[in-house]
UniProtKB/TrEMBL annotation:
The lineage of its organism: Bacteria, Pseudomonadati, Pseudomonadota, Gammaproteobacteria, Alteromonadales. Residues 178-213, 220-257 form the Doubled CXXCH motif domain. It holds the Pfam family Cytochrom_c_NrfB-like. It comes from Shewanella salipaludis. InterPro entries: Cytochrom_c_NrfB-like_dom (IPR053875), Decahaem_cyt-c_DmsE (IPR020015), Multihaem_cyt_sf (IPR036280), Multiheme_Cytochr_ET (IPR051829), Paired_CXXCH_1 (IPR010177). One of its GO terms (molecular function) is oxidoreductase activity. Keywords: Signal. This is DmsE family decaheme c-type cytochrome. Residues 66-146 form the Cytochrome c-type protein NrfB-like domain. Gene3D superfamilies: 1.10.287.3080, Cytochrome C3 (3.90.10.10).
Length: 305
């Protein structure tokens, strides 16, 4: 182990420096003498996961066992320490320690190289220095991030804005396990912006809202272009996850004077447009323009049918 005065050796080079002889002879049994379910950090649940499989030759348990991830035990397992002596450190994955993220991830990727090859390299989580172990828990029977109903909490621990949005009036059913963040995002990377599961925002939505795909005889340009122009998929305080209330939403783009597309208020009842205003009282644009996502009706050019 490096002298205290020397710069911290990186774990991977430590791994390379340590010889095969530094791995324990008895594998996990060596560790379990001191680490068990009653330890400050309970470790045994790993045996209920795929990493604890004795039959899969690729699993850690079939290889260096605990040391496949934590590195060779070396002097760490020494029974008695001299006064003032520190226990030799193991590789740890806990967030906030000084081991570089890339080196922690290299340990996971040494077995999960397929995943690495697919999209991980260059993805925003990789370049954003997120460790595999920031998302995945290894020493639990069920990894929380893989349970859809917990993703709001787990992903949301870093993505506060999206977590807050999921508590608003109108949301996708993210809280009950029907849907998770991973229905729309690929956490390991994707071909699309924002880690989306499909190539575009609209294709992502069409995966479940196929009826909005069209083709329509009369397309409403923004709907064919980008659903997120009008909807916040993470949730909003307007009905139907709209980014703004109707008519204001529509008036971002439509503001022709004279037509009811102007915001309505009681003052307009006495204007020359009084009749149309009266018609509009208490109504919204979508009461008349109801096929707002596009229309296949022969006379649906104004999305009224
Ligand atoms: C003789 C007892 C003993 C044995 C054997 C032992 N450990 Fe530890 N280990 C400890 C103690 C005590 C700590 C707490 C660290 C400290 O306070 O020094 C620890 C801490 C750790 C940590 C936290 C990181 C660190 O370095 O502090 C990891 C990871 C770890 N041990 C893994 C293992 C693995 C894997 C094995 C088997 C290959 C193993 N230990 C064998 C006693 C032991
Ligand atoms: C010694 C090889 C090895 C190492 C090192 C390793 N894994 Fe695995 N991992 C496996 C095997 C084998 C499986 C089971 C694959 C399967 O059945 O498809 C697995 C499965 C998984 C799964 C899916 C579990 C499930 O229930 O389906 C996750 C998540 C995972 N590993 C994450 C990690 C992370 C994070 C690290 C680094 C901290 C890591 N692995 C290190 C070999 C390894
Ligand atoms: C941003 C969080 C996050 C990060 C970072 C992350 N994962 Fe995952 N991982 C997930 C989620 C969520 C799933 C479940 C995906 C699903 O159900 O669609 C998953 C699934 C897996 C699986 C099992 C399914 C599969 O795709 O093979 C393995 C293995 C895995 N991850 C390994 C890793 C490794 C190795 C790393 C680091 C290189 C890593 N993960 C980084 C969130 C993450
Ligand atoms: C697949 C990789 C992997 C294997 C195999 C593995 N661990 Fe871990 N271990 C981790 C990760 C990642 C963490 C961080 C906490 C978590 O994700 O659960 C961790 C956390 C720990 C900790 C707490 C360390 C700290 O930072 O305080 C101890 C102690 C520990 N493991 C011991 C063991 C023992 C003993 C074994 C064998 C029975 C073992 N580990 C097998 C990946 C692994
Ligand atoms: C129904 C699909 C959907 C679900 C579910 C979803 N997202 Fe998104 N997310 C999107 C879309 C679409 C974008 C891109 C929006 C844009 O670019 O206007 C996005 C963007 C993001 C961004 C980038 C924001 C930015 O400003 O760049 C983050 C972070 C994010 N989502 C996290 C999450 C988290 C965390 C969850 C789960 C709580 C989640 N998302 C659930 C569709 C979804
Ligand atoms: C440990 C913190 C952490 C966790 C947990 C986490 N993320 Fe991230 N996420 C990040 C960081 C860091 C970035 C890069 C942000 C940046 O560059 O602004 C990011 C970026 C993103 C982006 C935006 C991608 C882009 O290209 O702009 C999306 C979408 C996202 N994460 C979704 C998720 C989802 C879904 C989960 C859960 C499965 C998750 N994240 C879990 C830290 C995290
Ligand atoms: C994995 C499937 C899935 C995906 C992908 C998906 N949705 Fe949804 N969406 C749902 C479900 C389920 C509901 C709730 C339906 C219900 O409550 O009747 C819903 C409801 C909605 C609602 C109506 C909410 C309300 O309060 O009436 C809107 C708007 C919506 N989604 C927009 C989008 C947009 C935009 C995207 C793409 C960014 C998208 N959805 C992607 C499954 C999905
Ligand atoms: C021009 C703004 C706009 C765009 C762009 C838009 N929507 Fe909507 N969407 C609305 C409005 C307004 C409502 C509420 C309709 C109402 O009040 O009856 C709505 C309602 C919905 C609903 C719930 C009610 C229903 O009709 O099923 C879903 C689901 C939905 N939109 C999905 C989508 C998808 C998917 C896209 C992208 C293809 C999209 N929207 C693009 C304005 C828009
Ligand atoms: C992001 C900008 C945008 C938003 C928001 C938007 N539209 Fe549009 N809308 C357009 C564009 C672009 C066209 C096609 C260009 C044109 O013909 O003027 C269009 C066309 C229309 C048409 C047909 C116009 C015609 O002349 O044939 C109607 C009706 C319409 N929109 C109603 C609405 C309503 C109602 C809302 C609110 C629910 C809305 N729009 C929100 C951009 C938008
Ligand atoms: C009472 C029913 C009604 C309401 C409410 C209504 N419209 Fe219309 N809108 C129409 C009719 C009818 C037409 C077709 C006029 C024509 O063909 O000359 C039309 C046409 C349009 C057009 C096409 C361009 C134009 O001026 O002819 C746009 C854009 C439009 N409406 C937007 C809106 C917006 C935005 C709102 C909400 C602020 C809204 N409408 C509310 C009935 C309505």
């Amino acid at each position: 182990m490096a002298d205290a005065a020397e710069p911290q050796a990186s774990p991977v080079s430590t791994l390379e420096l340590k010889q095969a002889a530094d791995y324990s002879k008895d594998g996990a049994d060596t560790c379990l003498g001191c680490h068990d379910e009653d330890s400050a950090f309970p470790v045994l649940s790993i045996f209920k996961t795929k990493h604890g499989s004795r039959t899969d030759p690729h699993s850690p348990l079939a290889q260096y066992q605990c040391e496949s991830c934590h590195g060779p035990v070396g002097e760490h397992g020494k029974k008695r320490l001299r006064k003032g002596e520190n226990r030799e450190a193991m590789i740890t994955f806990t967030r906030g320690n000084e081991i570089p993220v890339a080196e922690k991830n290299a340990i996971c990727s040494s077995c999960h190289e397929q995943l690495d090859k697919r999209h991980w390299a260059g993805s925003s989580h990789q370049t954003g220095e997120v460790a595999c172990s920031d998302c995945h828990k290894i020493h639990v029977k069920e990894d929380p991030i893989r349970l859809k109903q917990l993703q709001v909490q787990v992903c949301g621990s870093c993505h506060q804005a999206e977590k807050l949005a999921s508590k608003r009036f109108s949301t996708h059913p993210l809280e009950y396990g029907q849907m998770g963040c991973t229905d729309c995002h690929s956490p390991h990377g994707s071909n699309a912006d924002k880690l989306l599961v499909a190539d575009t925002i609209n294709d992502t939505c069409f995966g479940c809202h196929a009826e909005k795909r069209g083709p329509f005889a009369w397309e409403h340009e923004p709907a064919s272009e980008n659903c997120a122009l009008c909807h916040n998929p993470h949730g909003s305080n307007q009905p139907a996850m709209l980014t703004q209330k109707v008519p204001f939403l529509c008036q971002n783009c439509h503001s022709s004077a004279g037509h009811p597309s102007l915001a309505q208020d009681s003052s307009r009842l006495s204007t020359p447009y009084a009749s149309s205003s009266a018609l509009l009282l208490g109504r919204s644009c979508t009461n008349c323009h109801s096929s707002i996502h596009g229309s296949n009706h022969p006379s649906g050019s104004r999305f009224q049918r």
